[in-house]
Design a protein that fits this description.
The chain is α/β, with parallel strands linked by helices. It contains four helices and six strands, in the order H-E-H-E-E-E-E-H-E-H. Helix 2 links the parallel strand 1 and strand 2. The chain starts with a helix and ends in a 7-residue tail after the last helix.
Length: 117
């Protein structure tokens, strides 16, 4: 799961700055105690400048060895993953719909909501 992957490093970013990314950020931070260095996007227009005092930056500004959690819908992932590959990023964790469910279930279970049956 993504929380265990994040624990391997103390430096990571989340690709995306909308609903999926913010949900992933909330759960990952709660479960690991590790905040992302920034949120990254392909373009700044239409995105916030920061989320919880964490900056939103362009992907091209992030070093290639950075761990990246792709926190966008699966439809958008089809565009983002080839783009990240083209740019030379290799440490990528794709938050699929199933992975997002597992992450959020663990998060909500840990705060006493929606315990797994």
């Amino acid at each position: 799961m993504v929380a265990e992957w994040i624990k391997k490093t103390d430096k990571y970013v989340i690709y995306g700055a909308q609903v999926v990314a913010v949900g992933a950020y909330t759960a990952i931070t709660y479960l690991t105690g590790i905040k992302p260095q920034c949120f990254v996007v392909g373009r700044l227009a239409g995105n916030p400048t920061q989320i919880d005092d964490i900056p939103v930056c362009l992907i091209e500004t992030v070093p290639k060895e950075t761990y990246i959690v792709v926190g966008v819908t699966e439809l958008v992932q089809q565009e983002i993953l080839p783009y990240l590959d083209l740019l030379g990023y290799r440490n990528i964790y794709t938050l699929t719909q199933h992975e997002e469910y597992l992450l959020m279930a663990k998060y909500f279970g840990s705060i006493g909501k929606f315990p797994l049956v």
